[in-house]
Structure formats: structure tokens, C-alpha cells
Automatic annotation (TrEMBL):
One of its GO terms (cellular component) is ATP-binding cassette (ABC) transporter complex. One of its GO terms (biological process) is putrescine transport. The gene is potA. GO terms for molecular function: ABC-type polyamine transporter activity; ATP binding; ATP hydrolysis activity. This is Spermidine/putrescine import ATP-binding protein PotA.
Amino acid sequence: FAPWDDPQAKPLIQFQNVTKRFGGFTAIDNLSIDIFEREFFALLGPSGCGKTTMMRMLAGFEKPTEGHILLAGQDIDPIPPNKRAVNMMFQSYALFPHLSVWDNIAFGLKRDKMPKRDIEERVDEMLRLTRLEKFASRKPHQISGGQRQRVALARSLAKAPKLLLLDEPLGALDKKLRQDTQFELMDIQEKTGTTFVIVTHDQEEAMTVASRVAVMDHGRIIQADTPARIYETPNSVYVADFIGDVNIIEGRATPKGDDSYSIDWAEGQTPLQATSSAAIEKGQKCHLAIRPEKVTITAERPADAANAVQGKVHDIAYLGNLSTYHVELPNGTIIKAQTANTRRISRRSFSWEDPVWLSWTATAGVLLAN
Ligand code: ATP
């Protein structure tokens, strides 16, 4: 399933050069993106970058100042919110406290005057889908937070929208329940085939549930790609830094041919070796982004390492399954190396102030031209 890589695939949603201004402030800045049927698309970015504004434009609560939004090829601008095949699930769930679970789910269908028999069938189907059959007659205050979240989901899917917008849908749940619910959400999305667009502050959540993640900044999408590509091949320092932990080393590149570069980065240090598919000119400023888990920490200088630097252990973060070592180089640079604690070992194989070597291969990092 990768319609975004298929030039023939027809998008369900198209943002075409969409700009949204509030007075003199540009909240969405000439943004274009295609979202495909059955996608689970996540919007990720710092507070104020325009995630909610994108959702509100899809739902019809806001209109683009410039540009167009198409749903199944049709400009949705003239279509009022309640006539769009789009539903929005809010973080607060907005359940009716005096109505049972069953009536909460049936609410929109009754309002649409759907025949009674069809309503019953549809509500029962939604109860099965969200595993709420046993709770149909309970009121929202008589069920748990996780169950309330599922009622809200069942209600938003009852009318079989083409597109469901989820604004921090799991924000009210504690971490463990949140993680379990992420898998449930993926399962329900797959079963119904509905396109989901989710806004979340939690990058792990976006990486877990989404088919593609869009990393936003100041009303623009900086990169929209699969979680693996976002993590492995970020297109910028911004994206590399936003997702997960990363070492960013600034330097000046010298091309050596075949995508290989030598990078001068610190006085008295051997140049680093890296590869990049981006064309970087001689002397151009560049950044090498390396994930801590790609950096190996050893007591002795490793033989044949493309890159090896010496430093001292400055800090250790023990995370149970992983340990992250912060190693200080003679010039004050800190480089993080992460090791997997796969064997039952002592908490620390290196201690504070230990002299260590850090090494990585020429292809371990991503060399960015910006
Ligand atoms: P958060 O993660 O904090 O919810 P967000 O990425 O969803 O942030 P938006 O709510 O889309 O951000 O807001 C984007 C920018 O547009 C913000 O700077 C916000 O202050 C501004 N904005 C949003 N709605 C309005 C409005 N109705 N009038 C004026 N400015 C607005």
C-alpha cells in the first residue's frame, strides 16, 4: 500500500496551493499535498504550525484565503460542513452525557432521518467494530475513558464518512492505554477503509499509526513521507531534529566523487567521511545528521572505522532497554551514542569520565546540504 509512490493513483484529498491568513498572519503558507484513499495521514509539528487550521479547512469550519481543497476531485469550498463526507472527532469526545452509548452512536443517523431498521443495523455494526456491545445501554459516565474514546470513534464513523479527522484523539488517555488504543485505531481504520487524518503532538504516536507523516513548520509541510523514510532519510535538519534523537554535526564538505564527501568539522579533528545523494559543492556548509543508535561506543579505537573520534563519557541515561551515552569531545562537542541492553549486564558498561571511542560508517548518517 503506497499510492503516494504511484503516479497513477488518484488522491482523495488535494490541497492545491492553499494559503490561510488570519488578518495579517499567515497560518497556512501556499501548501500543496495529496492524501490518498485508505491512508492514515498524520500531521505533526510544533504548536502553532497550522495543524488544526488544516483540519478545520477540511471540515469546513474555515475557508482557504487562496488556493483550493479538493475531495474526490471536487472543490469542497462551496459545500457546507454538514454536507461534506467528512467527520471530525474532537479530543473532548463531546458525548451527550444524558444519552446511552447506543443513542450517542445513533444520534447523527436519527438526525439524518435514516430508516429505523438501518439505524439499528449500523449502530450494532459500530458497537461490534469498537467492541462496545456490552456497554450499549450505559451512559458515558458509567464507562472508562478508553471506552468513551471508542464511543466517540463509533459515533464519528457511523455515517461512513470518506474522511475522518482526529484531533489529538488519544490525548486524554494515559500512556499505556494510549499505546494499546493506537493499535485499535489502526485496526478500525483498516477494517472500515476510511481515510484518517490525525493531529498529534506525540511523534511516537504519529510514527506508530500513520501510513505517512507530514512534518510541518510555520504553515508549510517540510516533509511528508512514510515513518521509516522520515526517520532514515530526513530532508532537512529541521525534520531530523524533530523526529527522534539525533546528532547534528556542522561542517564544510569536499566532494570525493560517487556521492562521497569528506567533511571538515572541527579544528584538530580528522575530516569525517559521509555519503549524500544531494549535490554539495566544495566548501559548502552542510550538516551531518546521525542517529545515536548508529554510533558505536568502544573502549579501544576500532580498526577500519570510516569515522572514529575520541572523547570522555559526560552523561549516561539508562532507559532499561537502551542506554544513551553523552560523550564530550576535546573541542566541547557532545555526541550521543545509544546501545541496546540486550543482555543482562551491569547498568553501565562505561562510567562517567571514561575515555571512549565513538565510531560510525560512512553511510550511517544523512548528509544535508542545508
Ligand atoms: P497546536 O498544536 O497548539 O494546536 P496548531 O499547529 O494546531 O497548534 P493552529 O491552531 O492551526 O496551530 O494555528 C496556527 C496559527 O494560526 C497560530 O499561530 C494561531 O494563533 C493562528 N490562528 C488560528 N486560528 C486563528 C484565528 N481564528 N484567528 C487568528 N489567528 C488564528
